[in-house]
């Protein structure tokens, strides 16, 4: 029997194991896409995963509420792999035959691909193990609620999913990268992300007499413009602090100054240390801007996630696996994203890395994440399974000093 973890170049072999499973996995992904579920409500998704893993002879462990883990192989844990399973509250506009049946909910971030990739890895590794024992264990984590703040990573960690785990790997769909390629980066690959909600209240009145009111709409406008401006002068500009508002609501008539108003947005930051300092400044700056208008301010600042910071060794593992499985030109350098990702909380506990999985059809239409029309080139699914399966095999080989001397 072949030993897939001690050969000099063990990773250029996942494709043949995946090929007979791929049609089923594509159907599985389409079923998930048609039945998306919001954060902490992924009950059907969890049931479908448990059902398929049990059918394969594996023993998945359900997490509280939703989500699960499954261990493949025997022996010490070589690595964990994480995929997120929740969808977004967005109306789908793709027109696909397997478009969302749950109106107002869609997999607009590619988590259906992430989930199915992890299922495929579990099935491939299990089949390999049945033919020739892997000599170690790979733990696969199907995490709920990545799209909320704080996300489901905290709950998973509290339930012991990282016990005995030396490292963790993950992937994220990227519509800017052509299918058949992956994007990697050593160091920060995403940004810190917080949610900001501000409620103002004051004495309303007629727009002809603003001096007799606390002009709440004007105060909202000043906060919207000046808080980002002041923060940009109080925090190192190289840290990339960005405050962007997504909602401003106040009033119901053009000639009436309302007594209450509301705004919300996000604060993002490229640097973890600057994220902490900007967060400490936020309350001070908001109140300084608002105090000139006499309004009462209620600020709700929800700490979201720090940046995902890829370790050098784990990034190199993924890159080597991609080159062996897909080809020498498979790896591209990806820029740091301003998006947030709660995989960062796993990396606060362990070394690891997240790769970007190309989902763009070469020469095809440009999409973006969190858009209702986002369409994935389904060939990406196979590439994601190949690369991370191969990377997992390399982590098993890392556990065996004798095997390392053969390479």
Structure in words:
- This protein has 11 helices and 16 strands.
- By secondary structure, it is α/β, with parallel strands linked by helices.
- It starts with 13 loop residues before the first helix and ends with a helix.
- 46% of the residues are buried.
For the residues shown, what is the average pLDDT? 94
Give the low-confidence spans: 403-407
Percent helix range: 25-40%
How many strands in all?
A: 16
Rg value: 24 Å
Give the termini separation: 20 Å
Strand order of the largest sheet: 1-2-4-3-5-16-6-15
Structural class, by secondary structure, is: alpha/beta
Number of helices: 11
**Percentage beta strand:** 15-25%
Write down the overall geometry: elongated
For the biggest sheet, the summary is: 8 strands, mixed
User: Helices and strands, in N-to-C order?
Assistant: HHHEEEHEHEEEEEHEEEHEEHEHEHH
Q: Helices, strands, pairings?
A:
Layout: H1 14-18, H2 22-34, H3 43-55, E1 61-62, E2 68-73, E3 77-84, H4 111-131, E4 137-143, H5 153-158, E5 168-178, E6 182-184, E7 187-188, E8 192-201, E9 205-206, H6 216-234, E10 242-250, E11 256-257, E12 260-269, H7 272-290, E13 296-305, E14 309-310, H8 312-325, E15 331-333, H9 343-347, E16 352-360, H10 379-398, H11 401-404
Parallel strand pairs: 3-4, 3-5, 5-16, 6-15
Antiparallel strand pairs: 1-2, 2-4, 6-16, 7-14, 8-12, 8-13, 9-11, 10-12
Keywords:
single chain, 407 residues, alpha/beta, 8-stranded mixed sheet, 4-stranded antiparallel sheet, elongated, disordered C terminus
């Amino acid at each position: 029997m072949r030993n897939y973890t001690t050969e000099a170049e063990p990773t250029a072999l996942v494709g043949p194991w995946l090929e007979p499973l791929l049609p089923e996995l594509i159907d599985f992904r389409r079923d998930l896409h048609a039945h998306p579920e919001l954060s902490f409500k992924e009950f059907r998704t969890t049931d479908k995963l448990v059902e398929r893993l049990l059918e394969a002879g594996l023993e998945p462990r359900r997490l509280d509420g939703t989500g699960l883990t499954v261990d493949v192989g025997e022996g010490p844990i070589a690595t964990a792999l994480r995929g997120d399973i929740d969808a977004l509250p967005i109306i789908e506009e793709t027109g696909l035959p397997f478009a969302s049946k749950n109106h107002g909910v869609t997999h607009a971030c590619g988590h259906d691909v992430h989930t199915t990739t992890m299922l495929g890895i579990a099935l491939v590794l299990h089949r390999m193990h049945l033919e020739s024992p892997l000599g170690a264990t790979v733990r696969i984590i199907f995490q709920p609620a990545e799209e909320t703040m704080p996300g489901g990573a905290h709950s998973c960690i509290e339930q012991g999913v990282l016990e005995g785990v030396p490292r963790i790997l993950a992937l994220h769909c990227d519509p800017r990268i052509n299918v058949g390629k992956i994007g990697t980066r050593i160091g920060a690959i995403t940004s810190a992300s917080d949610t900001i909600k501000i409620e103002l209240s004051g004495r309303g009145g007629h727009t002809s007499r603003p001096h007799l009111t606390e002009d709440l709409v004007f105060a909202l406008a000043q906060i919207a413009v000046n808080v980002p401006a002041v923060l940009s002068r109080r925090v190192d500009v190289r840290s990339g602090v960005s405050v962007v508002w997504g909602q401003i609501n106040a009033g119901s008539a053009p000639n009436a100054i309302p007594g209450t108003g509301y705004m919300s947005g996000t604060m993002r930051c490229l640097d973890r240390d600057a994220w902490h300092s900007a967060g400490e400044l936020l309350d001070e700056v908001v109140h300084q801007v608002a105090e000139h208008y006499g309004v009462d301010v209620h600020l709700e600042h929800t700490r979201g996630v720090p940046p995902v910071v890829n370790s050098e060794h784990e990034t190199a593992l993924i890159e080597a696996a991609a080159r062996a499985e897909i080809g020498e030109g498979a790896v591209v350098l990806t820029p740091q994203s301003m998006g947030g990702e709660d995989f960062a909380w796993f990396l606060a506990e362990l070394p690891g890395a997240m790769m970007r999985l190309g989902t763009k059809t070469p020469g095809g239409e440009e999409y973006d994440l969190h858009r209702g029309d986002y369409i994935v080139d389904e060939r990406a699914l196979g590439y994601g399974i190949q690369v991370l399966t191969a990377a997992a095999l390399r982590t098993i080989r890392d556990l065996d000093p004798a095997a390392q001397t053969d390479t």
